């Protein structure tokens, strides 16, 4: 059985992680205000926009068009961290057809040719009616960034949106946060090794199965704790490989006549990492179920939940990653499906053996 020690240890580290993330300040201001009074509203957009006593207001009744304030910043250092913050409220925001058709505050990096939407850019998106609240987000300036656009917008949605006290400053990580980050990641690493050791030795199966389990475990750790920027680069490289393969097919099989601009739709690209999470946990659970001596499903299920929860919690302190309940559910679902498949196979084999 899974010892109560593992469960209590997981709960303890999780509580400490959440508490530190909530109360330990990550950044401190290291530079002057970067925004100016040079805000503009593009002429081709509809709706109403106004500014009065450092308070911006946006209003639109047309869900097919957008209204926004924008400002471009070009004075910054590559690799620096910029923090964008503002007080915001909204009233009767009715979302448009797309998930991003909301009231939003963005920091979009521009490489001189196009906006880099694949990089983190959202401070907050709002819908419905919400009272004044403070929102902030920090962004690392990429190596190809030539300009930064600050955008407050009603993106193809209707309603009213107000902003005030908008600030953009360069920041640095606080020393206390650095210490906490190191301690938290080290703790989750030890917990993962402890959990993995229990999985490998709590059974009587072959070395091959244990090696397969370790490989699946390493794949899960790499996939779930990879920094956000590196994850984006891997996804982009994957898409480039798909496009290269498509071009090669056109050369060898012209009858296919595939478009040279064909690629993976953004929605599918977002789905691929989720499918990877699901697949790795499914494989891990199948091997784990074969290794463990116990036939009680609750044992491997508990291991899966602890591993899925631990990898998501660690993402509080992984650059560019955010722990999501949806990812935890996907990981757990993949693991449970793997266990169900092994249990079904076992029972089918037992029935066949019994008949013989």
UniProtKB/TrEMBL annotation:
Transmembrane segments: 177-195, 207-226, 275-292, 297-318, 324-342
Xref: Pfam families: VanZ
VanZ-like domain segment(s): 213-344
Biased composition (Basic and acidic residues): 37-51
Annotated region (Disordered), positions in chain: 34-53
Iron-sulfur listed as a keyword: no
Transmembrane found in the keyword field: yes
Name by which UniProt lists this protein: VanZ-like domain-containing protein
UniProt organism field: Desulforapulum autotrophicum (strain ATCC 43914 / DSM 3382 / VKM B-1955 / HRM2)
Organism taxonomic ancestry: Bacteria, Pseudomonadati, Thermodesulfobacteriota, Desulfobacteria, Desulfobacterales
